[in-house]
Model the fold of this input.
Amino acid sequence: MVLVVLRRIGVFATTVVVASIVTFLMLSILPGNAARIALGVQASEADVAAQATRMGLDRPGIVRYVDWFGHVLIGDFGTSTVSRQPIGPEITDALGITVTLVLTSVVLALLFAIPFGILTAVRQRKPDGAILSGISQIGVAVPGFLAGMLLVTVFAVTLRWLPAGGWVDPGEDFGGFLEHLILPAIALGSVQGAVLSRYVRSSVLEVMREDFIRTARAKGLGAGRALFWHGLRNAAVPVMTVLGLQIATLLVGAVVIERVFSIPGLGSLLLDKVALRDLPAVQGIVLVLVVFVLALNFLVDLAFTVIDPRLRSAR
Amino acid sequence: MRAHTRRSLFASIATVMVASMALVGCSAGSTTAEGEPDTSLIVGLLATPGNLDYTTTAGAAIPQALLYNVYEGLVKLDNDGTIIPLLAESWTVSDDGLVYDFLLHDGVTFSDGSPFTAESVKFSLERVKDNWTANGPAYLDPIASIEAVSDTEARITLSKPSNSWLFNMSGPVGTMFTESGLKDLATAPVGTGPYTVSSFKTGDSLVLAANTDYWGEAPYMTDVTLRYFTDATAQTNALLSGDINFISGISQFQLVDQFKSNADFQVLEGASTGEVTLSMNNASDAFSDVRVRQAVMYAIDRQAVMDTANSGYGLLIGSMVPPTDPWYDKDLADLYPYDPEKATELLDEAGVSDLSVAFKIPNLPYAVAGAQVVKDQLAKVGITANVTALEFPAVWLDDVFSGHDYDMSLIMHSEPRDVSVFAAPTYYAGYNSPEVMSKFAEADAADPASYIELMKEATTTMAEEAAADWLYLQPAISLADADLLGVPKNTPSLALDLSTIAR
Done:
């Protein structure tokens, strides 16, 4: 057991190092000169060369990599070449916003998907079940950014109930925070909610055909009780797998949603920094994202072993 | 309906009462309770500043937010493009055009409390040469010496007469700093302006508060938030939903019409300094022959490009001069009427057939849309334009601007009075005319009347020699709540002057 955990940690560390090298190499072949962007079109070529030296861009790649990654290991992401502020706090601020957005959308997606999925499973052969199932199909087909634009048009522009975008810190004004959170979270969670509800439905249908449900029914439990007491826990395993995979997708989806709603999250930060060729910041952000997704997968794996005792022995 | 009417009536009475209280000297304060004047303003902008230091960071976003609002110089440009006094009460120029005597306002302080005097003028301007890397430190090259005659008298002596020098003093390089305010230019600017920075979140917002010790007339708006958007639709949606009050310089013109029919908003159409230019690499094999460049001029229907790329908004200019510059000549717009046959004749005359050019454009909406029309029209006269959209700014600057590795491009030149820069032989356009360059130099040193005349001659020669095809002038379209007053209409300088806005 200890060996298994150690091996997993080893794999994790190796992946992070490889990811850092790949990130660094990819960004170093990116065309464009950060020094020219910093000085603009009025600067002469000589000024730009001097600026490149000041920014440390003329050092050999290996020196820049070791310098950067060595500092990252002790928690120092360096200083942004654009904002001239430490990158670490910029990333954690933006990450906090993105994680808040993603988690809220996951909660909303689950709140929708579980009851809706179970309902469509239970009402499978009935006309209303077919209609409900059709609704979730539409949900799967509408991309998040389109859902976002529709929500803004209806609730912000036409009805003026909610703001069209932006972000308010919860510590600053909690009501304002919720107002700004709700539309983007729904937009981001809508597709996931619809996808999840499909998985909940098929998972529940499958479980209902299992022998242990028949046994429970034979013992005199009603269909609903049998499902609730014996079925849902079993139905949760495949749904959890999908959810784990989806959170990584949601992080990517958040980039687009942040753009639509002008939210200063990690996605917006990444795009801004790429455009300005703020390479230390871009490297830091990508690395944080990679570590975040790896850690997430690790947690999902752990969660399985908690939910499903059979998986513990399988390792 | 009835309740609504009564409410409005009460609101009107309250407004009148508050207004009359304000008239007899009771300050209405900055609270936003019903009836009292709302002195907070939220502005939606597109380009976000990376930091707040325009002495070392390029880009229009920083001066747009800070110049005239937080920072001030001796002179400023008003909304019509005229140079007017700011920290200098007045000035005199010697007959030989070399010595400028500025009389400074008395009792001006920086926002950190330190006094503004003639020593500040000397300190700030002398600092430019060695410490500024962005926003054109070379603009101050004409200065030979700066002398603090007394606290309120500064004498600046030039090494040669220069008309553009005083104009440039109205821009970022003319900004007055105090030595104690330089500690953290990137996040905490210290100036003499009507506003101070109270918070800055990069990529999100910049919050300005009225400077309570401002030396001049206090601005109406006491709390101004500049909110930065990455998407023009998100920006207009925010205005429609009431999140923001004012958008300066909308970039996608198909979004404008919905505001024209809506009485809650005002649409202001002014002039910018952004010339959308079809640049031709004069130094390349393709375009070194003036007849080939002129053929391109006749081959392009500029109105059609403007209709497609800008939904018809803009002004056909035909030269690199906006109407806010004194040497603007509107006749240049008709120098090359759309005439594909003439274009074909010129190409035949130059002995060019099957011309194929590398058309490298920035990946910006107006350029992508405009390039498609240009490509189609060039095809009609037998020129094949191979369009490549390059990431802007990084790759475009590297390839086209610095590398000169292109035949044709399409880009907006937004800096004010940049025509003489465009004519420099080392510039990316590769236009090499010693005659035009010497005329610009002569103009800069001339008396004010000859200055305008000589500038006109030089810019006309550039148009006649088809140094580039200046397609159209980007309009400055501002959208604002209907109740806002004093919204700046034109953008003759880099600054967005907030001090005139009221409700």
About this structure: The first strand of chain B starts at residue 40 and ends at 45.
